[in-house]
Write a structure and sequence with these properties.
Helix content is 46%, strand content 15%. Strands 6-7-8-3-9-10 form a six-stranded mixed beta sheet, sandwiched between helices. It has a four-stranded antiparallel beta sheet with strand order 2-1-4-5, covered by helices on one side. The protein is α/β, with parallel strands linked by helices. The mean pLDDT is 83.
Length: 372
Amino acid sequence: LKAYDQTGEEFGKLKDAYHHLMKVNLNAETIGGTLMNLANTFIQAGLPLMCFVGAYLILGGRMLVSDYLGLIIIGTKVLSPILTWVRYMVMLRTHYLSACRIDDVMQAPAMQGSGETNAHSDIQFNQVFFSYDEKAGNQVLKDVSFTIPAGKLTAVVGPSGGGKSTILRLIARFWDVDKGSITCGGKALSALSPDEWMQNISMVLQDVYLFHDTIRENILFGRKDATEAEMMDAVKRAQCHEFIMALPNGYDTVVGEGGNTLSGGEKQRISIARALLKDAPILLLDEPTASLDAQNEVLIQRAINQLVQNRTVVMIAHRLKTVQNATQIVVINQGCSVEIGTHEELLSQNGLYAKLWNMQQSAMGWQFETQT
């Protein structure tokens, strides 16, 4: 907003939104407050009315004093819960939408499955179709089929928006497929126990999230029962022991919400330490070296080399040079798996992968043109 001089009075949309919010709240308070005050007035007027009517009946000889006192005692006890009920009715009216949203979450079906997991097996995509919004009908993945060999590195590449990150999310079973199946060891992921499956998966994402807690607790999030020695081994292999020790309180330094007190490279290395500590047989990497400076990229590449050993690795990459030695490369374009093979095989096909590779090679020599 500052960069485009849209702050203060210039930012009319924000000002209008605040004025609209003010009017809505005033209307809500006026209607709700008036009704509650009227209800309170009528209810609280009940006790004086009972006293007056009771006194009149006593004087007329139609009520005993003992009955009158009992009526007053009962009346005072009844009024209090009625007033409380009126106040809660107004509160429930304002919280109705929030309650509906909570109810939607509570009514969402739990992921099913109870089968045992053999995470040291090949993972297969079999004619997979998937859409985040079934009603909209926009297919993110369309008839995707390929095999991820166990214990090997599979790279997923292609233009932005093609569905690469969706493939990782489906492997992690954040969602189930619409059509087709994803299997591991011949068993559909939808039939496996979700908890047991996630125990066999580690993820290192491009955007790392750290909790507002100590660095130690953020690392131990990968495995709560890890010993101090196991944690230190993971940290050193992730190339982050030195920068942690340089912090004011070392491993007990509290990072900000989301890790905002650390740099991108530091957060990424802590994420890798977490994955090393979990030591899961399946590793999902979503462009972990993107948007990093050269020094941090070298350190993270060293950490990743430690991380990928003896694991089934699926890695999304935009820099094709980083995955040219992968066991296989899957090229995703517009939701379809258009090419599969090694780096040399895909270059020889002279298809989309070869085009992306040549574009990146030519871009490496880019520089500003000299203005005359």
